[in-house]
Design goal:
The complex is a heterodimer. Chain A is of the alpha/beta class. Chain A folds into two domains: about 100 residues, Urease, subunit C, domain 1 (Roll); about 300 residues, Metal-dependent hydrolases (TIM Barrel). Chain A is built from twelve helices and 18 strands. In chain A, strands 1, 2, 3, 4, 5, 16, 17 and 18 form an eight-stranded mixed beta sheet that branches. In chain A, strands 6-7-8-9-10-13-14-15 form an eight-stranded parallel beta sheet, with helices on both faces. A two-stranded parallel ribbon of chain A has the order 11-12. In chain A, helix 4 crosses helix 7. By secondary structure, chain B is an alpha/beta fold. Chain B has two domains: about 160 residues, Rossmann fold (3-Layer(aba) Sandwich); about 150 residues, Rossmann fold (3-Layer(aba) Sandwich), CATH 3.40.50.1370. Chain B has a five-stranded parallel beta sheet. In chain B, strands 2-1-3-4 form a four-stranded parallel beta sheet, sandwiched between helices. In chain B, helix 4 links the parallel strand 3 and strand 4. In chain B, helix 1 packs across helix 5 and helix 2 packs across helix 12. Classes of the chains: A alpha/beta, B alpha/beta. The interface between A and B is medium-sized, with 23 and 27 residues.
Chain lengths: ~425, ~325
């Protein structure tokens, strides 16, 4: 095990209320001291973090690495590098792989793939229902024991509310977190963009806000009925934020996240028929974006996720509605968060919390903080470093991002995972 | 995005959508079409403008009228024309849209006329084809059907001369209609006084007013003071997808009858892109009546499509 001394960085750790220039000491895979040098500490490597931020590694609540089953799109190997270069040291993986994560064997295979790729901090999310079909419960307890952090139905609906109720009751019995992306299948009507001005103008099948908010409202009622702990993922609209705010005020045990791109793009951003803007939930309106931003600033929305969905070229090559939805986004989470700080939407400390301590609290894991004794997952980034998204700088196998070719500000320079320096930019 | 339709000299390269095209270009299409009307009356109905050029009609969706008039338009311009019904061809063997296009490109084609069931298909093909090839959209999903809209504009101008004082009503299934979208854009670009859409909420897109139309749910109210009545075809499957209760109730509310037509101006014209569902959206007496210009629209389709094809080829210095 190596020992690392990170010098003169701006330490930001919302949990321990640290926001000052200082040093961080890492040894034996753990954080051994913050600010004060431990006696007799011998650093095998020193990182000069002057003019840089040093914070806990980021925790991503919704990622897809495409293995098993779709390795033509991406692999653990390619996406691990992408995640580390984006400062992400822990990832929760959606269960809609092929096969679906509905047996312990698949969960174990995923952990094995992660280990082989040198990225151990993978948490599979298990399927809530078998094959994600929404009809029979998965073996949640066995899946939890096999290392799954939560259960969820990915983008597949659970249309039968009795099944959803029972799934939530069963999860609650074993204190298992349910991660739920609210989406009413019928109201969604196979749409590919928001039901708004853009869809009308370009004649594209569309998804109303109600497809999300009705499913969200139903699930909130079931939270009250079952006492299940639910995290609502990838919210996209104003009324979802209002509903989560009310539910929290009322005392329900719920949390929520938003994908980074939803805080920056709206239907007005879409270049007509450019399939890189095809994403589900769809990009909505300026007012939705404003509420999502306000929700993040007020704490109604706990965290920012990447909702990373890498694709091969063919998946995005076709007429817009026929292409596959999703954005490759591990590497843009940090600059997009920093842009919100630059626009005074949130403070830097809030931004870091939304990527570290807040998701850690949702998952109830000892991570997301620079606490002595915690596993040393650390991210060092330069707030002001400008870079361009292009083939030279991009690590993910999926080049499907609407930000391709754009200039970004803020970049990770070092990532440490479990005490190992796993990524350096230069 | 729609700029891919226009080359650096402002000339038409592809014709994919009315959206984003300037009034001057739409007027030019109408003027060029007018010059082609006479060709239909010649003893030998041909001009040699596109001699030696190969045009492929790629119809991924069934069509009779549109395909036939595109074919005739190409032939009257002396082009070699090949019509393919892809619904029953390669794609059913699993070949992708792009592969189909690449294969035809390899056969030295100069122009694709494309109809496809998915919105954006024509844009996609235009972006992917070799730079010398022009793409004409003959209808993509619910997005656009620009040549239909232009032949409608041509017909309106033929009869009414000036667009500026006109009040136009489009009646029926606006939601699923690529024709309506293109018509609304063309009418507004050409500067009519008012465009109205008349339909139940189930057949209107959300926020349709953002396209510059006034919305009516009542036919009688909507037809008042109207100069041009455009009826849209009602697809049978709208009944099974719970958008409407029945054909008969639809006809009662939105069907155009002689009595209803009397609410519009006395010299109002009645249009329909076809094919007509007699007794569903329009009464036979109206469809075949003195105010109907439905067959005139069909004839004008040839001249307008000749104009668009010739203009798109002009960028190569041919015309």
């Amino acid at each position: 095990m190596t020992s690392i001394h990170i010098k003169n960085g701006l330490l930001i750790d919302p949990v321990n209320k640290v926001n000052q220039i200082g040093d961080l000491y890492i040894a034996e895979g753990k954080i051994v001291s913050v600010i004060n040098e431990p006696s007799g500490f011998k650093a095998e490597s020193i990182i000069d973090a002057e003019n840089k931020v040093v914070c806990p590694g980021f925790i991503d609540l919704s990622t897809r690495l495409r293995e098993p089953g779709q390795s033509r799109k991406a692999s653990f190997r390619s996406e691990s590098v992408a995640a580390l270069s984006g400062g992400i040291t822990t990832m929760c993986l959606q269960p809609d792989t092929n096969p679906v994560v509905d047996t312990s064997a698949v969960a174990e295979l995923i952990k094995e793939l992660a280990k082989k790729a040198g990225y151990p901090k993978i948490f599979p999310i298990a399927a809530l229902t078998q094959k994600l079909e929404g009809t029979e419960l998965s073996s949640m307890l066995s899946l939890k024991k096999a290392g799954c952090i939560a259960v969820g139905n990915a983008n597949q609906p659970v249309s039968n509310l009795l099944i959803l109720r029972r799934a939530m009751e069963y999860a609650a019995s074993h204190d298992i977190l349910v991660m739920f992306r609210p989406n009413d299948y019928w109201l969604g009507n196979n749409g590919c963009v928001h039901e708004g001005v853009f869809a009308t103008r370009y004649g594209l099948p569309s998804i109303p806000e109600a497809a999300e908010t009705i499913a969200l409202a139903q699930c909130l009622e079931l939270v009250e009925l079952t006492g299940c702990r639910v995290h609502f993922g990838q919210l996209s609209c104003k009324r979802s934020v209002i509903k989560i705010h009310q539910a929290k005020k009322y005392g329900l045990q719920v949390s929520a996240d938003v994908a980074a791109h939803q805080l920056h793009l709206t239907e007005n951003s879409i270049i007509p028929f450019d399939s890189n803007y095809h994403v589900i939930p769809p990009l909505r309106t300026d007012s939705d974006l404003q509420y999502l931003r306000d929700g993040l600033a007020s704490g109604t929305i706990n965290s920012i996720c990447s909702d990373h969905q890498p694709h091969d070229i063919d998946a995005k090559l076709g007429a817009f509605p026929e292409t596959e939805p999703g954005i490759s986004s591990l590497e843009t989470v940090l600059p997009l968060m920093l842009d919100l700080v630059a626009q005074d939407v949130i403070t830097l400390e809030q931004g870091v919390a939304s990527l570290t301590s807040n998701p850690a609290r949702v998952l109830r894991i000892d991570s997301g903080a620079l606490t002595v004794g915690f596993s040393a997952d650390v991210c060092v980034f330069d707030l002001n470093l400008e870079w361009q998204i292009n083939a030279d700088n991009w690590k993910s196998q999926g080049h499907n991002t609407p930000f391709w070719g754009k200039a970004m500000k803020g970049r990770v320079t070092h990532t440490i995972q479990s005490g190992h320096l796993t990524y350096t930019a230069f | 995005m729609n700029n891919i339709q226009i080359n650096t000299e402002g000339k038409l390269k592809h014709f994919l959508s009315i959206d984003g095209l300037p009034k001057s270009l739409l007027t030019e299409i109408l003027d060029v079409a007018e010059s082609f009307v006479g060709v239909n009356d010649l003893q030998i109905k041909k001009v040699p403008l596109l001699r030696g050029k190969t045009i492929v009609n790629l119809f991924f969706e069934n069509s009779t009228r549109t395909r036939t008039t595109f074919e005739l338009a190409a032939k009257r311009l002396s082009a070699d024309v090949l019509s393919m019904s892809i619904a029953t061809s390669s794609t059913s063997k699993g070949e992708s849209l792009l592969d189909t296009i690449r294969n035809l490109e390899a056969m030295f084609v100069d122009m694709f006329v494309v109809r496809h069931a998915i919105s954006g298909a024509a844009h996609f093909i235009a972006q992917q084809t070799a730079p010398h090839i022009s793409v004409i959209n003959a209808g993509d999903g619910q997005h656009a059907h620009p040549t239909q809209a232009m032949l409608d504009m041509f017909t309106i101008r033929q009869i009414k001369k000036d667009f500026s004082p006109l009040k136009v009503a489009i009646i029926g299934d606006i939601l699923h209609s690529r024709v309506a979208r293109s018509q609304i854009q063309a009418l507004n670009t050409l500067g009519v006084d008012e465009v109205r859409v008349i339909a139940p909420k189930t057949l209107l897109p959300a926020h349709v007013e953002c396209m510059g139309v006034n919305v009516f749910h009542n036919l009688n109210a909507g037809l008042k003071d109207i100069d041009v009545v455009i009826m849209l075809r009602l697809q049978k499957e709208r009944m099974t997808s719970a958008l409407l209760p029945s054909e008969s109730e639809y006809f009662k509310c939105f069907g155009l009858t002689e009595d209803k037509l009397k609410i519009a101006k006395p010299d109002a014209i009645v249009m329909h892109p076809g094919p007509i569902n007699r007794g569903v959206e329009i009464e036979s007496k109206v469809a075949d009546g003195p105010q109907s210009v439905i067959l005139k629209q069909v004839s004008n389709g040839i001249a307008v499509r000749m104009a668009v094809m010739a203009m798109a080829m002009q960028k190569q210095g041919i015309v």
